[in-house]
Amino acid sequence: MGLFNVTHPAFFLLTGIPGLESSQIWLAGPLCVMYAVALGGNAVILQAVRVEPSLHEPMYYFLSLLSFSDVAMSMATLPTVLRTFCLNARNIDFHACLIQMFLIHSFSMMESGILLAMSFDRYVAICDPLRYATVLTNEVIAGMGLVVIARSFVTLFPLPFLIKRLPICRSNVLSHSYCLHPDMMKLACADITINSIYGLFVLISTFGMDLLCIFLSYVLILRSVMAIASHEERLKALNTCVAHILAVLAFYVPMIGVSTVHRFGKNAPRYIHVVLSNVYLFVPPVLNPLTYSAKTKEIRRAIVRVFHRIEM
């Protein structure tokens, strides 16, 4: 089937939360607060890492990459979500929807890759601390960051074209207040096997492998920590991983829930799909800066110094 001779709607209609259409305006306030926390909190961390020499270390470089991906994810979803909930403006241009879909999935994959890089950082710091400075040099960190970014965009580059090859003629109403690949492909009145297989391949080969490698890294970390004789030293070593573990849980638990419901929960109420998808996109960017600020004293001190400089 040709790429440019199929039927596409001029625009899609976005959806808020089914059954709560009349109350959506009241959700705009909490959503604005979440976006403000996500954008403001991550921007503060980026600024702290940039200006504080004490944070010019591998762990905090990776944290700044995580904050960047969270800011980018929030910016990718903010326009349509707030238009849908605040103004009830539901329409989005077909090509704009493709771009938003690509950006959301790309930045999500980028965050997964960054969490994997951060787990490698913790593994080297705890299991081989004497080689930490020689293994994680600035060149290695830059290379890992470029690989994570390149993987995200290259792997997901086919998605918009896989959607464009499909005739969309069943409906133009999407299930969320933003555009996702599984949501869009279900509107096609043609065989979506290629889209479904490619989506599953991407999910397993990137997110699945990242999660497996993170799990294995923590198995090795725990084995190394248990070999430490001092109980206090064990707790100190594990404490450096708490913020990262919470970030991993905040990202992967909602994502696994969304994937499970999409593929196996066809009879689940529609609002379950919507709520889980919103949690998956909105919660990690909000929790990550709060978690790292609360659990990492170096970040707290740097943030205090940043605000002190602003006041002066």
Automatic annotation (TrEMBL):
GO terms for biological process: cellular response to lipid. SUPFAM superfamilies: Family A G protein-coupled receptor-like (SSF81321). GO terms for molecular function: G protein-coupled receptor activity; olfactory receptor activity. InterPro entries: GPCR_Rhodpsn (IPR000276), GPCR_Rhodpsn_7TM (IPR017452), Olfact_rcpt (IPR000725), OR51/52/56-like (IPR050402). PROSITE patterns: G_PROTEIN_RECEP_F1_1, G_PROTEIN_RECEP_F1_2. Keywords: Cell membrane, G-protein coupled receptor, Membrane, Olfaction, Receptor, Sensory transduction, Transducer, Transmembrane, Transmembrane helix. Residues 41-292 form the G-protein coupled receptors family 1 profile domain. One of its GO terms (cellular component) is plasma membrane. The chain crosses the membrane at residues 25-48, 60-82, 94-120, 140-163, 209-229, 241-259, 271-291. It is found in: Cell membrane; Membrane. It is a multi-pass membrane protein. Its main location: membrane. Belongs to the G-protein coupled receptor 1 family. Putative odorant or sperm cell receptor. This is Olfactory receptor. It comes from Camelus bactrianus (Bactrian camel).
